[in-house]
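Hi there, hope your week has been kind to you so far. Please have a think about how the structure follows from the sequence. I've dropped the whole record in just underneath, so have a look:

_____
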Amino acid sequence: MPRFFQILSFLGISILLAIGFHQSADARPDSKAKLPAALLAHHQKYPDCVPLNDPMMPQEGASFSGQIDKNTRIYGILCEPAAYNAPYAIYLVRDENAKGAERLNFADYERDSGWAGSNLLYNAYYDQKTRTLAGFSKARGLGDCGAQNKLQWDGYQFSLVEYRYKETCDGKIDKPFPLIYKRTMRTK
């Protein structure tokens, strides 16, 4: 892996650890898994992602995969190499040959425009042990502002559990961003 991407990877993981998205050694997804041909064909239909064979794409670390349950895998494919935000297309594959790949959408928030949807998850991380998917979109390289989201596998899909957002870039990265959404569990 080129030194530049090692540094980006380190910074991204360090910040995720600092905000509470812990990565244990047995929870790391497989970052060297071969992507199924049907998934690659499906992915290449989307014009918002740079082709994986583009010279600007890193040779390693451009994708990850992990087992969710007996019949379901998650795949993250880097859409475009960038300085501090790595946008990933996230797919669920519910069959062995990946012909039924489903690209996921995610909640996104901006103070001025409110809630929206996005089919990219920035600086994505999947924890196989807890079946949690997390993202961190930095508003600038330091990572002191932006958005953080956490999703939990509910047996069929990933559901938003919490969303944090900090608009003001103030140089402080020592505490979690303000919580603007937290899922509450219904009681019967």
